[in-house]
Amino acid sequence: MSDEKDKEGERVTVRRRDFLRKVGVGTIGAGATLATPLVGSAQADSETNDEKRKARYKESDHVKDYYRVNRYPV
């Protein structure tokens, strides 16, 4: 796979499985440090049932332009 030098400076061939093990251990360590600050407490939904059911779609100018450019019938 690739070459490394040992303590005496001689080239040593790294086998594919050894390479994948080293890469795998590095990604696990990096993932653990990156995921730690993202963990937080769960929060309850603050919307009422009426707010959840209200209409949210608004056909604004940029939506009309999108339909026009992509040739959607209006």
From TrEMBL:
PROSITE patterns per the UniProt record, alphabetical: TAT
Superkingdom of this protein's organism: Bacteria
Compositional bias ranges of the Basic and acidic residues kind: 49-59
Disordered: annotated segments: 40-59
Name of the protein in its database record: GH24 family phage-related lysozyme (Muramidase)
Species whose genome carries this gene: Bradyrhizobium japonicum
Lineage: Bacteria, Pseudomonadati, Pseudomonadota, Alphaproteobacteria, Hyphomicrobiales
